[in-house]
Amino acid sequence: MGNTKPTCPYCRTPIPETQAEADRNSMKRAEANDPVAMRQMGANCAFNEGDYTAAFEYWTKAAKLGDVEAHNQLSIMYLNGSGVDKDEQKGIYHLEVVAIGGHPEARYHLAMQEGRNRKIDRSVKHLIIAANLGHDKSIQKLMLAYKAGRVDKEEFAAALCSHHAAMVAMKSPQREAARR
Fold it and tell me: pLDDT: is 30 or 139 the higher one?
């Protein structure tokens, strides 16, 4: 029991004591094509340094390696024109990858995008999927669509049941204790 210094749960190396040491470790991981490290480096470039060009490069590499959150950051960049030319088609592509990866908020944003493009049926389908995953804003929008006659009673009832089941499945004693 001689070494009581905290270690990384993944690589078992000692936790860095300085920010410079942590940055070196992150750079090593990024150079080894670790997509999570690349995503984190991109976030550091964008949010701490304001360097969206470097962030875009890191996020693009991480996305090519399959990091869903990197796709999410790229969708935001393209849809808002942050650091890149605004490109709705590329933004939606990245948003679809995130949604396929199981991200309910991305499904919701796809639904809103489809609604703005007057593709109501596609919008409703995205809302149903997000609601089935327990996304609250999606079930609220589905209720509005139901009241407007864009969703039939059976579809809405099924989505409501699935939403409730997802919410129950997410409950745990630890979450309940954290809320108090």
Answer: 139
